[in-house]
Design brief:
Blueprint lengths: L2 E7 L9 H8 L4 E8 L4 H4 L3 H24 L3 E7 L3 H9 L4 E7 L6 H6 L2 H8 L4 E4 L20 E5 L9 H11 L2 E8 L1 H9 L1 H10 L3 H10 L4 E7 L2 H11 L4 E5 L6 H6 L1 H9 L4 E4 L3
Parallel strand pairs: 1-2, 1-4, 2-3, 4-5, 6-7, 6-9, 7-8, 9-10
Antiparallel strand pairs: 5-10
Helix pairs in contact: 4-6, 8-9, 11-13
């Protein structure tokens, strides 16, 4: 069975910012895109006025059909689905369908970035999804370059931050992306400033710092077995600042990370780290729930 990429859209141009990345993936995969539009039924429909339901579904379909046809004209496989329910359950239910291997979506749509990221659709999808999510902040950010929609290689350098409690759950997906685009992986571990200072003081503290570090060498060795180039960087400072700095200096096109870290799922994903990255970087994030 070929793969399916699930792309939720809400009718806004900002949500459609993910589409160039989806096209680039489809050109390299035996896959089709499933374009999803979920519409909350109006209150009148819930009270039995069923013609409104039909009109809402038809409007959703009319929005999706031209986008599907544009994929097909480019020789790519695409189909559409409409759901008369809330966006989060609709996305998660479609993601459980046969062959769906990735959700690709913008972090901003009609309701605004802060709602989607910190309390709404994107958070709900990331909490409930069993498959990786490619999330894109659709607005320009100073100092970052955006993939040229006319190009065909959006990912050349992929930054993979790992903290001390990270498993390597993100590694298979990151390696798969790297192999598709002949990209290089850069594994990053950021020491907290206090631990970095202690490690600099003596051999004992350096040993403890090494023990608390994520399995960077293991990750690099697994990549080598897959034929994927990689390198390791250990840095110190504020985590999100160092991730953003390294993404610039390494000319990264994608940041891949798990959605669980030392500080706990909700804080790590929706607190300072990922929130800072999505608000300050123009790069897409490839997010995989910790297993």
């Amino acid at each position: 069975m070929s793969q399916r990429l699930l792309v939720p859209l809400d009718g806004s141009e900002t949500a459609e910012a993910i589409l160039p990345y989806v096209r680039a993936l489809l050109r390299r995969l035996d896959a089709e895109v499933l374009l999803l539009r979920a519409v909350n039924p109006p209150a009148a429909a819930m009270n039995g006025f069923y013609p409104i339901l039909s009109a809402s579904e038809e409007a959703a379909r009319e929005y999706l059909v031209p986008i599907r046809d544009d994929f097909v004209r480019q020789g790519l496989r695409a189909r559409i689905a409409t759901r008369l329910e809330g966006a989060i359950p609709a996305i998660l239910e479609e993601a459980e369908g046969p062959g769906v291997s990735l959700i690709a979506m913008a972090t901003h749509g009609r309701t605004g970035l802060s709602h989607l990221l910190l309390g709404g659709i994107c958070e709900g999808v990331l909490r409930g999804s069993r498959i990786p999510v490619l999330a894109l902040r659709p607005f320009p950010a100073r100092g970052f370059r955006r993939f040229d929609p006319g190009g065909d290689t959006p990912f050349r350098n992929i930054l993979v931050p790992l903290d001390a409690s990270s498993s390597l759950s993100i590694l298979p997906t990151a390696c798969a992306f790297a192999k598709l685009f002949d990209a290089r992986l850069v594994f990053l571990h950021v020491l907290e400033p206090r631990k970095a200072a202690l490690a600099a003081m003596g051999a004992g503290e350096r040993g403890r710092a090494r023990e608390e570090a994520p399995p960077l060498e293991t990750a690099a060795q697994q990549c080598a077995l897959e034929g994927v180039r990689s390198r390791i960087v250990v840095d110190s400072g504020r985590v999100s600042d160092r991730i953003l700095a390294l993404s610039r200096s390494e000319d990264a096109d994608l940041i891949a990370m798990t959605t669980h870290g030392r500080s706990g799922f909700s804080r790590f994903l929706f607190g300072s780290v990922s929130s800072d990255i999505l608000q300050r970087s123009d790069l897409p994030l490839l997010l995989c729930r910790e297993t």
